[in-house]
Write a structure and sequence with these properties.
The protein is built from one helix and four strands. It is mostly beta strands and 104 residues long. The protein has a domain of 65 residues. Strands 2-1-4-3 form a four-stranded mixed sheet, with no helix packed on it. The protein is globular and about 40 Å long.
Amino acid sequence: MYRNYFYIDRVEIVLYQKPRDIARSTEGKLLFRDLKPYLQIFGYFSVVDRDNWSGEMYKYRDDIPEKYDDRPVYGIGMEDNPDADTLPPKRLVIVLSENEKEES
């Protein structure tokens, strides 16, 4: 069981009276570089490639390499961590792709 750290398995949403305008690098899509500054500094992040569903885990936001910066964000969510015996029970999953997101 994961006991070395205090960990709460949730996503925290902070609301403001005035919306924060997240500057986007490009029109019409959210790139990972635009989202990254808004992620918490510590947390177990799983960055998943939508094209082949492979993924890599990172403990800190700053550990996530710049190779993902120009990739469009397809989704963000929480999922059960398969390594919950040694890591927190939940992890944040960020789904990216090298291909453009098609509008439906």
